Amino acid sequence: PLLESGYATIVEGLVLNHLPKELLESPGRLMLIVAGVLNLIYCIADNTDGRHARRTKRSSHIGEYLDHGLDCVTSLLSTFLLMTALGAESYYAAWAVLSVALVTVCCHIVHQEQGVMIRGNRFFSVDEAMLAFGLGLMAVGFWYPSYISMTVPVEWIATTVGIPPQYIPASLVNTRIAEILLVFFVLSQLQVFLSIVSLDKTILTRPCSILMYANIAILAVSYTHLTLPTKRIV
Fold it and tell me: How many CB atoms within 10 Å of residue 84?
């Protein structure tokens, strides 16, 4: 009990006393910040455990398997948590998760068979993704709920597309920044998948890929029959 009270005093003095009052009154927001910090700690640990094992000559095949297996699980959970925290509906967050799952599984298969690890593209690697997950969750916790209503200015859309603002479809007028980030995220995963296919075209017909295609088809069909409600976690 004495030790626990000592830890509690340290946490209260170093952390809780320096947080805004509105955060302490919103456990959901505080948990998002904690999740972001833990995600960053995981990112550091994930980049050092393999090097430490090789340096101390304690690396093994089972250790490498477990390391990559946990990476797969963590990347999927982090993707879904960040997308839903940004206000995306579960249906759209599922698209992001499926894209990450397809890329992650195929990436590790190619790494196992050819010894080549494709960790992303030249704009966005796995390390940047993990940093984005951690910092993104922390940002959501600090700035909730203002980010939900942040929309892309019509002038930006018009400039990007190259048409006058008055010709922008009504469905794009209130496009939220979070939705734009989701589109870029899925497109970046597609680009990584094409890079993997360029190394091994048989990956397109592997059982894991076929199962992913089936999941994508089910998700696409479900949109016409079922709309999943958005459940706020904050």
Answer: 21
